[in-house]
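can u do me a favor
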């Protein structure tokens, strides 16, 4: 039995088209276009490099609704900017390399779709009027605006302040309010030490107290997945108050005397917060400051009382909360 081809080649065209369609359908479905992954800097440290490789493999396997992902790494932290195919954008701050792949995996499937707003009757009329005006200029769609991670933080702490020379020791209350960014905090810090116990032998019946308020600027360094260290500088104005009882040379009676002096405090601080990603967290502060206007004054004042302190260390523990 012999198979004969049709004499007219055009009669074979329908068969060729069907055969080609079957071949194309038999080919394996290609994956969706892979998500473009950009890393800044191009050569991060070993831990982040490994995390980036895992993320790249994840996106190559199944990119989901992802057009581009940009990872900016700086001082142990990373900022991930994730953009979908229709222009939606999300920004996440990562404190640990192990957070990169789970965050990408979640964003590519859970980023909410753009909100669909049903136009009102008046809006539809306006759209109809624009449609009949061929020369009307339509505003260009604006690009998605990046999300800036800024928080308002407040904290209250209770601790002890050791001041010298003297030396003197007293309880201290610290109150602060600051703007917290991805890696920085800038804010106000107030401290009050209502009374000191003067530890010198010649303290007599002196009473010492002080209060300060000023500006603090610090930078965050992650110590782990949930612990962060803040280190920074402070500049404060302070006031010291000293009171004492002394005999009056003329009458022989004991009289009360007091004096105040201003201070310009320059210092540094370190604060540990846990958990660093929580809205409310524990905070431990260690502050060191010196009085720039009275540095090195070690001689007793003319009234014979113990020397007034011009340097101090403060250790305090309390709670920090994110209010906005």
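np, heres the sequence
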């Amino acid at each position: 039995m012999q198979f004969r081809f049709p004499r007219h080649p055009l009669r074979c065209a329908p068969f060729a088209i069907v055969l080609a369609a079957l071949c194309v359908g038999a080919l394996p479905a290609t994956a969706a276009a892979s998500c473009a992954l950009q890393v800044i800097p191009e050569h991060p440290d070993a831990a982040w490099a490994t995390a980036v490789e895992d993320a790249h493999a994840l996106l190559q396997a199944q990119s989901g609704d992802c057009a581009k992902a940009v990872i900016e790494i700086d001082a142990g932290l990373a900022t991930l900017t994730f953009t979908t195919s229709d222009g939606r954008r999300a920004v996440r701050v990562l404190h640990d390399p192990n957070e990169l792949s789970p965050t990408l995996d979640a964003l590519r499937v859970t980023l909410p779709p753009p909100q669909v707003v049903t136009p009102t009757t008046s809006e539809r009329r306006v759209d109809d009027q624009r449609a009949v005006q061929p020369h009307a200029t339509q505003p260009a769609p604006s690009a998605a605006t990046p999300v800036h991670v800024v928080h308002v933080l407040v904290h209250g702490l209770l601790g002890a302040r050791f001041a010298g020379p003297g030396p003197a020791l007293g309880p201290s209350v610290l109150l602060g309010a600051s703007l917290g960014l991805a890696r920085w905090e800038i804010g106000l810090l107030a401290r009050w030490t209502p009374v000191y116990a003067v530890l010198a032998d010649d303290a007599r019946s002196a009473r010492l107290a002080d209060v300060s308020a000023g500006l603090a600027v610090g930078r965050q360094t992650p110590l782990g997945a949930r612990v962060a260290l803040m280190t920074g500088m402070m500049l404060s104005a302070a006031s010291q108050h000293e009171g004492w009882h002394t005999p009056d040379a003329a009458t022989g009676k004991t009289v009360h005397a007091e004096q105040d002096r201003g201070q310009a405090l320059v210092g540094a601080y370190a604060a540990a917060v846990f958990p660093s990603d929580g809205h409310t967290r524990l905070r431990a502060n260690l502050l060191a400051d010196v009085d720039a206007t009275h540095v090195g004054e070690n001689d007793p004042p003319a009234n014979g009382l113990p020397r007034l302190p011009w340097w101090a260390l403060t250790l305090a523990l309390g709670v920090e909360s994110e209010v906005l």
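The first strand starts at residue 36 and ends at 40. hope that helps!!
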